[in-house]
Amino acid sequence: MxxxxxxxxxxxxxxxxxxxxxxxxIDRGAAAAPVLDEIDERxxxxxxxxxxxxxxxxxxxxxxxxxSATATIRKAxxxxxxxxxxVVDDALxxxxxxxxxxxxxxxxxxxxxxxxxxxxLSTDGGAGVIPAMVAExxxxxxxxxxxxxxxxxxxxxxxxxxxxxxxRVSAELPAVxxxxxxxxxxxxxxxKGIMAAKKKPYETVDAASLDIxxxxxxxxxxxxxxxxxxxxxxxGIKIVDEGDAGEKLAAFLIAEGVTR
Length: 260
Ligand SMILES: Cc1cc2nc3c(=O)[nH]c(=O)nc-3n(C[C@H](O)[C@H](O)[C@H](O)COP(=O)(O)OP(=O)(O)OC[C@H]3O[C@@H](n4cnc5c(N)ncnc54)[C@H](O)[C@@H]3O)c2cc1C
Hints:
By secondary structure, this protein is α/β, with parallel strands linked by helices. It is 26% helix and 24% strand. The chain has a single domain (2-210), classed as HUPs (Rossmann fold), CATH 3.40.50.620. Residues 6-8, 25-26, 37, 39-40, 43, 62-66, 90, 92-93, 95, 97, 100, 104, 118-119, 121-122, 124-131 line the site of flavin-adenine dinucleotide. Its cofactor is FAD.
């Protein structure tokens, strides 16, 4: 079985993150240290857990990311992935969701796959639609937002949890799935794993070798019209109850324009 895991480099969630107000992209200079997105570590873990139980399983990690993302991608190799594909091309800088999905799908096709595992939502872009779009471009079934995952030789099955209940869903392979934080955390890397990662296959490809023309005017692209920094947050108003809290609250709501 061949599993491709989609991994994205993101700024560390615990550090300061900034948008470049000129481009609308992450200000990589000012942003916190780049890391492998935690949800994608879980996606790698899901693939490796299957590989542990099924010798012969190949796990390829795939990222479309700037050239500087090499160390982040190697972390997935150090966790135990078999090989890595890094799509890197300056013409893809600022790629919108459709172009990203097209690029990832082309790289997946080129690599070959039975199953694609992704995170359900990146911690920076946060669109939450790349896995579904990749499945659509590949023309295969998608099971998104899975809180449990089982893989057999021919099928993938999982649980989709919503406020209304839990759906048990399954699809024939090949398929694309995305997983949630309900799945186990990624395993720690070991010194042995880090050393082994240095010798694992690491392929770098550009858009042209995937037959993708980033500037093709025939393809719909979204255009960013403007970008603005989030306004600073102001402290709220604290109402102390001295027997008149209800009146003060009503006066506050009226002043804020809340009417019947
Ligand atoms: C040179 C260059 C610069 C880039 N700069 C930025 C940037 O500044 N900000 C930014 O957000 N993106 C950047 N990207 C990546 C790309 O534009 C986004 O990944 C894309 O828009 C996906 O949006 P999302 O994270 O909201 O997707 P979501 O749908 O929220 O992602 C869900 C899941 O899809 C998979 N996935 C998403 N994106 C990728 C990817 N690129 N590679 C592999 N798997 C992926 C992951 O498994 C992820 O958990 C850059 C890419 C390149 C080549």
